[in-house]
Specification:
Elements: E1 3-9, E2 17-22, E3 31-39, H1 42-49, E4 51-55, E5 58-61, E6 70-71, E7 75-83, E8 95-98, H2 108-111, E9 135-138, E10 144-145, H3 152-173, E11 181-184, H4 188-200, E12 205-208, H5 212-220, E13 225-227, H6 234-241, E14 246-251, H7 256-265, E15 266-274, H8 286-292, E16 295-298, H9 304-315, E17 324-328, H10 332-340, E18 347-351
Parallel strand pairs: 11-12, 11-14, 12-13, 14-15, 15-16, 17-18
Antiparallel strand pairs: 1-2, 1-6, 3-7, 3-9, 3-18, 4-5, 7-8, 8-10
Helix pairs in contact: 3-4, 3-9
């Protein structure tokens, strides 16, 4: 039997290690993809830890229903190697990006096309074995997307950082006032958001990040202004320079400090979309919420339809490349440690 190599989670809050198993045989409409690239996402760290930080010493257990060893990784692109008897045979040999946010297919959300909201989901790298491996088994061929003429790294990262940024930004597109836009947090998703925002909006895009290197990279990649949120009196300065704050803000960090910064710089009547998962707790006086007439919406990943919409936008050539670096799949734990330490700008793409 053919064997596949995986970088597996064998114990929560412990390093990944290599495991070798028999390569799965696709059944029914399943498709086996030989992985060429898999992006490293910050949410992989939360799954490895086994919890998400709720602030105040409280934790959300993320281990329920997971069987170890488990393979993380959900930004996947590769080549179709084998198909089940109910899947199209002409897929074999085709290069595809893999949409990983797969639902149960039966619940109300799935029937409405919102598989990313499914409580009984089959998310690759989250509920089913994912992409830190030589192969991945995809439940249905409909989750495979053509990506030519994009490069394989871009194709893979569109499936998480891309669709998360795209979906978050879409929540700001149809608002009446669109004078300006602020992106908070310039990790892999934030950098992708900067690239997409320039294709989706006419107004200048402002960014904010703790890292001077990240701010410099953002300015190089098209940001109009870059702020250091720790600078003294920064909110007061921003409100003056923007004539009352930002009409739209996306918080790609998602912690108490990033949210405090977002709230302090959003304009009256503005909207904040939160899609970061760094964790913690945030409170806001009710009077301030009402006084600012602001809207706050949480968002994570997107639908298959949005994935196709994003892929079409990227394939049209309107999206600028984002910072990425290729590293061996076998070194994934090294790069998890680097990401955890805040030493990664852009996206690390793991290759076989």
């Amino acid at each position: 039997m053919a064997q596949m190599r995986r970088q597996s989670l064998v114990k929560f809050d412990a390093p990944l290690c290599e495991t070798i198993v028999e390569t799965p045989k696709p059944k029914a409409g399943e498709v086996l993809v030989r992985i060429e690239r898999c992006g490293l996402c910050h949410s992989d760290l939360h799954i490895q830890d086994g919890y998400a930080d709720l602030g105040g010493g409280r934790r959300l257990d993320t281990t329920r229903g997971m069987t170890l060893p488990f393979t993380l990784g959900h930004e996947i692109a590769g080549v179709v190697e084998e198909v089940g008897p109910d899947a199209p045979s002409d897929l074999i040999g085709r290069k595809k990006a893999v949409f990983p946010w797969i639902g149960c297919g039966q619940c109300r959300d799935c029937r409405n096309g919102d598989e990313n909201l499914c409580l009984r989901n089959r998310f690759l790298g989250v509920a089913l074995d994912g992409g830190f491996a030589s192969h991945v088994l995809v439940p249905d061929a409909k989750y495979l997307l053509d990506y030519d003429p994009l490069d394989v790294d871009t194709a893979a990262t569109l499936m998480c950082s891309g669709i998360t940024a795209f979906g978050a930004l879409k929540r700001l597109v149809d608002r009446r006032r669109q004078r300006n836009l602020l992106l908070v947090g310039l990790g892999g998703v934030g950098m992708m958001g900067l690239s997409l925002a320039q294709a989706m909006f006419k107004q200048p895009v402002t960014v904010a990040d703790l890292s001077a290197d990240a701010r410099a990279a953002a300015l190089k990649n098209g940001a109009a202004v870059a702020y250091d949120p720790t600078e003294p009196e920064i909110a007061r300065r921003i409100m003056k320079e923007t004539d009352g704050g930002f009409d739209g803000v996306v918080d790609f960090a998602g912690n108490d400090k990033s949210m405090a910064f977002a709230v302090s710089t959003v304009a009256r009547g503005g909207k904040i979309v939160v899609s970061g998962l760094m964790g913690g707790n945030f409170s806001l006086p009710m009077v301030q919420w009402i006084y600012k007439r602001m809207t706050i919406e949480g968002f994570m990943v997107g639908t298959l339809a949005e994935g196709k919409e994003l892929m079409a936008l990227a394939r049209s050539g309107k999206v600028r490349p984002t910072p990425m670096k290729e590293e061996p799949m076998a070194d994934v734990q090294k790069w998890i440690d680097q990401l955890r330490a805040g030493m990664v700008i852009g996206r690390v793409m793991l290759k076989n």
